[in-house]
Amino acid sequence: MNIKKYIPNTLTCFNLISGCIACVMALQGDLKMAAFWVILAAIFDFSDGFAARLLHAYSPIGKELDSLADVVSFG
Description:
By secondary structure, the protein is mostly helical.
């Protein structure tokens, strides 16, 4: 089992989770924490694309998952 191909999707999931937490923080009125989680999501968003290119780990599900994470985190 080649674990390298799962690294970009794992980072994308961290992006998605960070975006969800940012939404919850914003709805609770804690905008500083919401901004922190959005910035963390941006870091994960950059790193998942970087990891995918570096490891040559492209997948159709990764493309769709990245789009979903971007909408949740930055949409």
